[in-house]
Structures are given as structure tokens and as C-alpha cells.
Design the sequence.
């Protein structure tokens, strides 16, 4: 490989290379085509994905609760009656819904951390159970 030869030549001549590209980008042992397939470690524990899903729902609910205050402002006329009804629902039930979502998110995180060692050892063994 030309880049590898260039950096080897600079190293042998004890000179500073003109290119500032790291050598590990060009070394043959890090060739992505030569790598073996590895399963994604994040997908090893299914509670990781559950936590991401619950957290995303929590963020969407929090943003909807935030926007509902602007929709109820008389100066900002909502586009339709339906958006006003949704804003009123979030105004009444938003804190309760976010509390429930937070508790589900907390429980999912605790279960994820508690089972992480088991899923990691299972992945290292290469078995299913």
C-alpha cells in the first residue's frame, strides 16, 4: 500500500512525514474487509433497546407537555380545536404520564444493569442460554 510505504520510508529516514494522516488508517491489519463478523454488543442485552425506546417516548412526551403551554396561550391561536384538546389533555395529565414514564425508564435501567453481566457472559460463551 502506497501510504504505508510512505510512512515506513519516513520512519527509516528519521524525517517528519509531510502528510498528517494517522498511520492506523492505512495499515493492512485494520482493513475492514479483513475483519471477522462481530455481533453488536449493544444488541446483546435486550433491555438496552427497551431503555432507548422508553427514553425516546419520555422525551417526546416532555416536549409535547412543553408545547402544550404555548398552544393554550390565548395570544397563540392554535390551528384547530383538536390541537387545543390535545394541549388541554397534556396540561391535565402530562405530569402523571411523565412520572409513570420516568418510573418505567428507571426500572428498565435497573433491570438492564442487573442483567448486563449475565448477557455479557452469555455472549462471550457464544451460547444462547
Sequence:
Amino acid at each position: 500500500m502506497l501510504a504505508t510505504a510512505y510512512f515506513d520510508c519516513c520512519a527509516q529516514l528519521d524525517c517528519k512525514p509531510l502528510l498528517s494522516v494517522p498511520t492506523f488508517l492505512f495499515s493492512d491489519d485494520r482493513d475492514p474487509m479483513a475483519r471477522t463478523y462481530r455481533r453488536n454488543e449493544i444488541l446483546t442485552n435486550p433491555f438496552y433497546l427497551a431503555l432507548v425506546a422508553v427514553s425516546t417516548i419520555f422525551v417526546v412526551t416532555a416536549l409535547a407537555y412543553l408545547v402544550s403551554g404555548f398552544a393554550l396561550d390565548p395570544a397563540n391561536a392554535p390551528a384547530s380545536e383538536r390541537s387545543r384538546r390535545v394541549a388541554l389533555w397534556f396540561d391535565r395529565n402530562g405530569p402523571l404520564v411523565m412520572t409513570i414514564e420516568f418510573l418505567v425508564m428507571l426500572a428498565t435501567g435497573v433491570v438492564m444493569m442487573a442483567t448486563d453481566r449475565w448477557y455479557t457472559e452469555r455472549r462471550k460463551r457464544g451460547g444462547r442460554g
Summary: The helical segments are 2-12, 46-72, 81-125. The CA atoms of residues 54 and 105 lie 6 Å apart.
